[in-house]
Amino acid sequence: MAVFNRYFGKKDKIPGLWLIPILGSAVMFSTFFIPIGFHGTEGVESFIYVWISTADSMRMEFGFVERVIYIILLVYLSLSLLFITVTWHVGAELLKDAFAKKRWTPGVEQKFGWKLWIIIILFSTPYLFMVKFLDEKQFFELIREWLNLRYLSEIALVIIVFWLGRKAAK
């Protein structure tokens, strides 16, 4: 929303916005429960890409394509390309805004932004370390821990913003 929010006006209404949580919940439940139904609770944890293994064990008897794996791989590929396109666009727009020369006062030249470059180096160094020294399974474990930490911090952020909003309203 950091980039795309600028294109929405206050009077713009998105039709069918109420469908997003319903469809999202249906996708999340099916993504979670269908592989458990095929492989069991113990068998699911032994796969890295659970849905690829699940789709490989499915068959459509009267379908145009007999095996479901081809359909799932096509959907995965489409979603991956969509995610990559949106992520690169948002990243490019944020970097373009971060490195743009802004002059608030006419005639005053901006200084070089060392702080921004230091922040970029600090955030890119751990990533380069992870790519070089971790294998795929270790990387997924690290991501799992990161998402758990992020979940707790986002809950804390919502509570703090709610508290500050209530405090400002008084």
UniProtKB/TrEMBL annotation:
Domain of life: Bacteria
Keywords, alphabetical: Membrane, Transmembrane, Transmembrane helix
Protein's name in the database: Uncharacterized protein
Bilayer-spanning residue ranges: 16-38, 68-91, 112-129, 149-165
